[in-house]
User: Fold this.
Amino acid sequence: EIVLTQSPGTLSLSPGERATLSCRASQSVSANYLGWYQQKPGQAPRLLIYGASSRATGIPDRFSGSGSGTDFTLTISRLEPEDFAVYYCQHYGSSPPWYAFGQGTKLEIK
Amino acid sequence: EVQLVQSGAEVKKPGESLRISCKGSGYSFTSCWIAWVRQMPGKGLEWVGIIYPGDSDTRYSPSFQGQVTISVDKSISAAYLQWSSLKASDTAMYYCARLPSRSYYFYMDVWGKGTTVTVSS
Assistant:
């Protein structure tokens, strides 16, 4: 069973700053099966990144993903007010099927 | 437009049964897995199970196996999550989401707005 650990738990930044969110897997995983989601209060999660680095449809290019093996990163190059939310990483490549989510990183306005 | 529309909020007593629904539109419903995801109040996301509407192939998270039943009615493009005897600990938001592939090695690209389930005596 793969466990994903996200850090930090909470990140306090100002609009215009750069955000770097980390996701570490308990064992090496294929980058093909690593995704990132954004969830705003009272809303459903939204897919941002799949395959570790591919942006989903309609996602602004200030969002980027990278990483391999056990360490993955979501970077928001220049924070906009609407980017303050909770972010989850997910691994979706296990057999039998298992969709591990990280515990989330809350990005809050400083 | 691809959409998943979920049924409305439910308030139930412990021991009661419940079935919530998720209706897909704007795509070939039988060609993509549907996942159910739980979010307890103030907590993170947990995978419950998945179903492939084309042949009703169903897989459960070990944490939820035997606790819930996932089913589908492809004639009306609907997936269901049901409980036979609710517990207070089932209180949560439940989301359905699409995996845009026949393969279950896939991300969840479209999500429903969620169904709030409250179980209280």
